[in-house]
Amino acid sequence: MSTAFLLNGRAVEADGHPMSRLLDVLREQLGHTGTKEGCGEGECGACTVRLDGSPVLSCLVPLFQCAGRRIETVEGITAAPEGPLRDALERFVATGGVQCGACTPGIVVTLASLLASNATPSREEVRTALAGNLCRCTGYEGILRALAPAEPER
Amino acid sequence: MNGIGASPPRPDGFAKVSGAARYLDDLSLPGMWHGATLRSPHAHARIRSIAWDAALAPDGAVCVTVGDLPGPNGVQLIDDGWPILAGAFTHHVGEPVALVAAPTRLAAQQALQAFTVTYEPLDAVLSLEAAEALPPLYQLGMDSGDVDAALARADLVVEGEYRTGHQEHIYIECNGMIASYAEDGALTVLGSMQCPYYVQKALTHALGLADEQVRVRATTVGGGFGGKEDFPSAIALHAALLARACGRPVKLVYDRHEDIVCTSKRHPTLVRHRTGVTRDGRLAALDIEILMDGGAYTTLSSVVLSRALLHSFGPYRCADVRIRARALRTHTAPNSAFRGFGAPQVEFAIERQMDRIAHRLGLDPLEIRLRNAVAPGDRLPTGQILDAGTSALPCLEEVARRTRFRERRQELEAARARRAAEGDEDQNGAEPRRGIGLSLYFHGAGFTGNGERMMKSPVTARLLPDGRIEVLTAMTDMGQGCSAVFPQIAAAAGGLLPEDVTFAEPDTAEVPDSGPTVASRTTMIVGGLIARVTAALRDRVLEGLPGHTVRDGWIESPAGRVERFRDAARRLRAEHGPVELTLRHEPPAWQTFDETTYRGAAYPTYAWGADVVEVEVDPDTLAVRPLQVTAVCEVGRAIHPTLCAGQIEGGTLQALGWALLEEMKLEDGRYLNDRLATYVIPTILDSPRIDVHLLESHRDGGGPFGGPFGAKGVGELPMDGGAPAVAQAIENATGIGVPAIPATPERLLAWQRAGQTPGGVR
Ligand code: FES
Ligand code: FES
């Protein structure tokens, strides 16, 4: 069975069972391996993509729900970033927001959504937005330094 | 700015941010099949029979059982006592019993249904107490002075028993490997790993192949923390056996559940202390017994136990010391390497014991540490005389100053006394209780004892045709950032620009065996070799140019700039053909260690740290929320301060997770919380603000203490300090004694009911 949707602005068709996980369709069928699996059950956020502009966990989204909708992955979101997102991505690397990088695509997608509605989030707003994204490497400090530059730096 | 002490952006940063970085599961080879593993449901059982009904399996699926192994049934690490597949017996839940490969991941899972295994369950040993009476996997001891006499003389003898639990690594990228055979029988394995040469050794040993026939390449590693030190060797073997059976490349990737069920964890540990102290709070005798739960097979337990022994006395002075350490055998998956490698468990125990002693003597936690902390020139119980970079006191003083520890603690104690006087200590809906705690810790960097001397790790540098220097090491960047730090070291040591230097990927076909990416040795030991070999290759280019130096990528004579280094190097390469140098690590001659008596210098140097943690405890639920951590760490020299602080921030949060949240519950040998929904690690909302302050002990131009430019290993250090500081803070907030971690609300309630106080059981 084939399902049509927009992937990073391009029309695509995916074959598969309607209950296939969007995560697998993206990674295995459409070659978008930037989206990662960290748990497969909605706990880690590594698989976050945007569905019609809102962050969702692609390990929990069945393919049929994507029909006719807009999916954006980390590849699309970071291809030509503008404004606050571009600045944030640059700072993200510079301030130690990335270590192993396995959590990073999910965090970038979540942050892109936050920044789209709030260009200068506070530390607390960033923490709330990232509540569903686990990072085992950074202790989250490097991530917060990148996003809440108003905080005093060491 | 890219020099030592600058923080250039990591070279893999944008690829990771944009999703372009390729991790193992992002790769696919033509014709590749997928593997799956049949695992034991029993903690201990005899395997009566294994039957495979091909009719029940998807078309073409192949299976591998223990009878198909071409060589010894052992994963070669220190020895090969860890079975590749269970033989006549299974010794833990999740032990691999058989393997399958099929064209898709789903088909491989379905193929597992084609097995019928008959088990005869046997009694299992599932606690340290039960294991204590049985022969250990490994044991060690160390004696210094006369402990019994010193205990008899002491003004006070304090006893304590401290426990820590399993901890799962939860690297966000699960373990995975791809194995493929070429037509000539050569094997290539790709995977997520810390130690490519460990994997190669395991493959050659079990498959009867020569070194040249086995190529191992590390892909981008999505976190390791020790969890990808030994385990990848087993998975690589499984993938290779399946590739051999089906004649195609095979990918074997664990999902989170499988990864938690079967991979190694941090050793649960019980430490018993009996400490003699003088009236004024000085340590007179330390009698220490360490029991570590090694799980079913020894894997790396002997070396974990060794590091545990060598950190169990803490960063304190004491001449009369007796330590007995045993790794015990239980029926769980083997416990093995996890950041800190035995040290966090024993440093939790000694720090708790120091707090108990302070409580008995009416001293505050800072004072007891100030009175006992080691200083330059002091001796450790092993006899090692400590170098000038011994920074226990500077760390302690700095963290106390920054946090106003003493004043803050007095304020909180006064508030608690006031509440008690007003009788609202136990009122429902009362304000959260605040508490503050402090810890002092140290970590020996590099391999323990004679490990580095035996390995003599090599690093190679060669001139490329374009005049750049290529450096070859086997180190993997699992996130810690050696891909950023190594070029900084090489450029600074050679007087070169970062773009004059390039690094080879960790691939056993290309790079020499510069040892595993473990033990906080990457910057200090291998980085030191990189500095030496780069400088030596630069000198080779400068041969015949007396009085010349290289600075900022230019060859300079006393009169000024002569030419770009790269131009001269390119010429030399064109005229002479390949120019290549290999140097090996040689520990300083004074660093000798006796592995039978445990006397001598176990580590070339130590990194030091002190933490202050402030927590809030809900008086109704006893839920603990860490609010603020201040970590002061002495690292010799921070080559890349942002990455260095990142290690400390991340390690500190792992320590807090271990101390507060991460509880592995077992029932009949099965981990009950074997999913990320139930094994809880800190989210950003659980995390305190972590302030890191780096101290440096290096002298100009490097130092006698550490590695390149004076840098000490730092990756594991921050794992040692968080848990004891948080335990002390909980005691300060609640008055409930915390003899074990994780300090979950359920346990705090039980301890409160049992009369646990900071001074022991009431
Ligand atoms: S993989 Fe989807 S939330 Fe973890
Ligand atoms: S950078 Fe490794 S999990 Fe976040």
Question: In words, what does this structure look like?
Answer:
Chain A folds into two domains: about 1-75, Roll (Ubiquitin-like (UB roll)); about 85-145, DNA polymerase, domain 1, CATH 1.10.150.120. Helices cover about 35% and strands about 15% of the residues of chain A. Chain A contains six helices and five strands; from the N terminus they run ββαβββααααα. Chain A has helices at about 20-30, 75-80, 85-95, 105-115, 125-130, 140-145, and strands at about 1-5, 10-15, 50, 55, 70. In chain A, α3 (about 85-95) packs antiparallel against α6 (about 140-145). With about 750 residues, chain B is an alpha+beta fold. In chain B, α8 packs parallel to α9 and α14 (about 480-495) runs parallel beside α15. The model of chain B has no long low-confidence stretch (mean pLDDT about 95). In chain B, the strands form nine sheets. Chain B has a seven-stranded mixed β-sheet with strand order 3-5-1-12-9-10-11. In chain B, strands 7-15-14-13-8 form a five-stranded mixed β-sheet, sandwiched between helices. A four-stranded mixed β-sheet of chain B has the order 16-26-27-30, with helices on both faces. At the A-B interface, α2, α3, α4 and α6 of A face α1, α17 and β30 of B. The structure holds FE2/S2 (inorganic) cluster (2 copies).
